[in-house]
């Protein structure tokens, strides 16, 4: 199936903010902070600066992502965000490596919070006219005790931002309407930006989640846990499945992460994230085999639901059959 345009809106793109209560902010500080991060995450720590924030993944030795995060520079420290549901397990695992770096700590900031801002007017209202200077994903702006980060636009080119507030006494932007978490999740799906859940943790190599196209993988940095598998997939062209955006219709519930996608009765992929956008329809991100993208897809156990491909808002050359991709 070729990607088709959705005749109905995916979500309201009106300006507003969302309290991302499912996220925890973690500070890594001390003399070994950069070296620790360099050895465990897929991003080159030197490229995380006072004006640039980048995504990163932490992986198992087999290259499977157990953490998808964003790295933010704050003074000499590094900040990252973790899904609240996965935070304890992720921190426990990372601390096994942190023990090697004397004087370096990694702690959740209990008073910090992240607000998602939808639309450029929302960013300007919340953070001032300087927010207009952020024109591409990853650019950052210091805002008093916080940091404003431009992230990926939605498929209809609605600008999105994350406002990391590091002190708990900052007021909410009451001039703006508060939008529900489902709105932010739907916008993330529209932007083609996945997040991990308990069902998908350690299920995918970062390239299967398109993270190399979302500022999440640096292929020229040195060694880190899982790097050998990730690099081999990149340089030998072994990527056989990756992230697609799809629309589902005919259900008043969104498929759960991990739900299998079928083509002619055979499993060809799994749902990563999904969200309703109307009473009987919604959007999802799913990892699907490249050789199945032209077939008729169905959701396992949801026989009355129709599934159609939607275009991602960024190119994924690896998904093009005629392209000899290098990932």
Automatic annotation (TrEMBL):
Source taxon at top rank: Bacteria
GO biological process: iron-sulfur cluster assembly
Entry-linked NCBIfam families: ygfZ_signature
Protein name: Folate-dependent protein for Fe/S cluster synthesis/repair in oxidative stress
Species of provenance: Marinobacter excellens LAMA 842
